[in-house]
Automatic annotation (TrEMBL):
Bias (Acidic residues) ranges: 16-32
InterPro entries, per the entry: Tfc4/TFIIIC-102/Sfc4, TPR-like_helical_dom_sf, TPR_rpt
Alphabetized PROSITE patterns for the sequence: TPR (PS50005)
Region (Disordered): 1-41
Superkingdom of the source species: Eukaryota
Organism: Hypothenemus hampei (Coffee berry borer)
Gene3D superfamilies recorded: Tetratricopeptide repeat domain
Pfam families on file: TPR_19, TPR_8
Protein's UniProt name: General transcription factor 3C polypeptide 3
Keywords: TPR repeat
Residue stretches of each TPR repeat: 116-149, 352-385
Amino acid sequence: MDEEERILQNCPPAPNDEDDDDEYSSDSELQSEETSKPKKFVSKLSPHLRGLMGEANLRFARGEVEMAKKICFEVIRQAPDAYEPYLTMAQMYENNNVKIYKSFLLLAGNLHSSNSEIWCRLADLELQENQIGAAVSCYTRAIKAEPHNVELHMKRLNLIKDKYPARWKTIPALKLNLAKSLKKSKHEQILKICSEVAKQYFENKNYFKAIDALKICIKRIPEHTNENVLNMLLELLLLSVRFSECLDIFTQFCGFQFDLTLDEDMSITINSYTIPENLHVDIKTKFIVCLIGLQSYHLVENLINEMLIKDDLETYGMLYFDIAEALIASGYYKEALDLLLPLVKSKNFSLAAIWLKHAECLTHLKMYDQAIEAYKNVIVMAPNHVDVLYPLAMLLLKQDRKQEALEVLSQDLSSGKLHVAVLIEQMKLLKQIGDLENYWKCCELLLSRHCIVFKNYSELRIVLLLKSTVKEKQNKIAKIRMVKGEYGDMESNLENLFEPSVEDEYKFYLDILQFAFEQKAYKELQKFAFMGLGSKRFAQYFPEIFMIAGYSCIFSKDYYHGYLIARELLYQRPESNNAWNLYSIIAHKSQEVVKMNRFFEAATIKARMPIGHTELVKANHFCSVAQYPQCLSYFLKDYKNSKNSYSAFMIGVAMLQQYCQRKKNTIEKKSMVEMVTYLFFNYAKIRSKYAQQEVYYNLARMYQQIGIFYLAEHFYKKVFDVKNEFLDKYPDYLNLRMEAAYNLHVIYKNSKNFNAARKLLWKYIVIE
């Protein structure tokens, strides 16, 4: 068995169904059975080795199994890529060791992949072991070897349908492969399969795959393609805006003739056409829609008039509606209205969808009174069609009927039901008219469906407990309220109708927060951000909401909760720049130096965050609160170890601030100026060449601060002359010309040189 084990160690793994996704989704056209020829197999064995294999098979037939094995091993040694010895070895183990039998079959199958019989035997083995996925993969390999074997296609298809729901999504593609494998004489089956698959893709709005499915019919059996298939294909091509292909179908299958011009921009202009007589009204409608899409309305007026005369409106109303929709999409509102008007007055087609298009046409034609009545008819016919409410409210606003607009979107909550979609439309209207007081109330009502509604300031801290679930947070808040004697639901107890998806509502929630920030309604911003932290629906977005809640605390000046958030963020994400920035801002605003030092000491002792980060934040904080000795202590150490340009700059800044604050005699003043100048020039020397503009700007600011204005002017002017690729690429972020111009203008203004100051403003700052 040593030789067998050595060979089987290199046995390929059993086929995996995941490796065959390309086969399922492939829409490539198979070669037709009339032209395909069976592949001729050429053995990789030499005549001598073929003789040996014949001897091995003869010995095996006589029962001399061991001798047959030795001969097979010798053949494998001399020709390891030939499949015959592996297949013979598999037969030897077929009845006494299924595992080895399967392994040798796999070797034979991979070496002779065009042998479908081997793969079918492997599929049977996998089915016996209930390995459905592997069996499907084996059938797929068999089909690749024998693509026109319909029986193999049916076995694989039935196996997936009955026993393998994980692969149901591949059934349409498998059916198409079957349709390509059927003989052309079975045209009825081909048409049926392709039509069914196309309908399935159409329902899923996958128009491109639906078109490819129907194209199998017109390519393989064009003479048997019926009107239903053509109608469906034309409908899909029109939906996909593939008008040139529609013209090809009209020419090839419907008997049309065209005189066309192909413009320079590859657009098609139809000069004239010839249409066959007794053309079915469906095809004629598709042709009219195609012409409208090609902006050739002047060619369809006669056809539409002819349809109105010949074809009964009560029977073919939906076809008229298709034409009207195409006219609306192309901006022909008056022409569309001429078709929609008889439809809304008809018995069979006075429907909500048609009234809606009628209202849209009237709106575009500025016939607002009639449009309002049309929208009201839509609401009566389809009360749940809430998308109508917002445009109706907008029309009422245009006529200065503000109260009516609000009534359209108002709800009676005493019924115990909340129509979420209507509430969202109402919020849009309130935002549009600037009624912010009611807008914030609606925001709270919207979020109260799944968020905790806070009553006390003390409850805010509880939602910051990231390790607690929403249910646990609710229980803790309930205990606080019980102690205070406050009762009531933490969430809305209304029945919610027509709720949006979690993703859509979260996008809308972010819009609310953004609008609150833009309106500087910082209390509302904080309230809604904290409500989001107590939401059942937004659990997956907690990290982002937590960060937003931290910034909301800065704007609302709630540094207590802001500090808790910033501290937790640093614990969770010590490498995040945003977390460090947030902590630095809140620490600076709150002036809690002792608390900050204790936090950093505890965090670094527990190795929860890098020491360098904490020291840097502390040093920057000391600089911002004018504690320069502590600031210098850190940056001098860092500069000595790393020669860091930032440290050099901060040393210069700290010394400059000390110089400006102290009272000095002339000798001390001169000494301090020399030291500060040396420090800033040292910083300038370390910075890269791409930071030249920043260097000049900071040197100018330094000289302006210590009152040496002629040198400040010199370096500010150098800022204007600097050019490099980064300044040109990101002028709004990196270019300091406007800042330099403003500072230099202040110098000129203070020295009474108003003309020079005005010239600078006009040249670099005023936007003409």
